[in-house]
Write a structure and sequence with these properties.
This protein has 146 residues and is mostly helical. It is 42% helix and 8% strand. It is globular and about 40 Å long. InterPro entries: DUF3800.
């Protein structure tokens, strides 16, 4: 499957970053922790890519987000792959099974089944698809309305 520019008029990493930061903000806000210091660790990908990510992060936390709010306590940290961060290892282990689940929901997926009950606030029996955001391609008739 080829993902075209019409699906992501913005950079796909920036779309994902915005969605994740907004979800994190909402999670922290519900617990009265939104203004506390929170570090977001990203694996280094190269000088140009890191600069682009940093600029997008700063744009989003400065208020250019769907809430129109400043995410005052959010801080960006870059980590080299060599540090062998537990958090980055977990992200790597969870990403592929989650993607497979989203792209082929009928396919047997033991790895996803092992951690799906860990989604916050969702009992294992009532999981559904909460906690996963899937960007779907617009139909030709929908794109004329945008």
């Amino acid at each position: 499957m080829r993902i075209g520019a019409d699906l992501f008029p913005e950079h796909p990493y920036h779309v994902s970053l915005k969605m994740c930061l907004q979800c994190a903000y909402r999670f922290l806000e519900e617990r009265a922790q939104a203004d506390r210091l929170s570090h977001f660790v990203f694996e280094r990908r190269g000088l140009k890519e890191d600069r682009e990510l940093e600029l997008e992060f700063l744009r989003i936390v400065s208020g250019q987000n769907d809430f129109g709010r400043h995410f005052a306590g959010f801080r960006l940290v870059f980590a080299d792959k060599k540090i062998n961060s537990t958090g980055l290892q977990i992200a790597d282990l969870v990403a592929r099974p989650t993607g497979v689940h989203a792209m082929r929901p009928g396919q047997r997926n033991r790895a996803f089944a092992a951690f799906r009950s860990k989604f916050i606030g969702i009992p294992a029996s009532g999981y559904g698809n909460r906690g996963i955001h899937v960007m779907k391609k617009r139909k030709a008739s929908d794109s004329s309305k945008a």
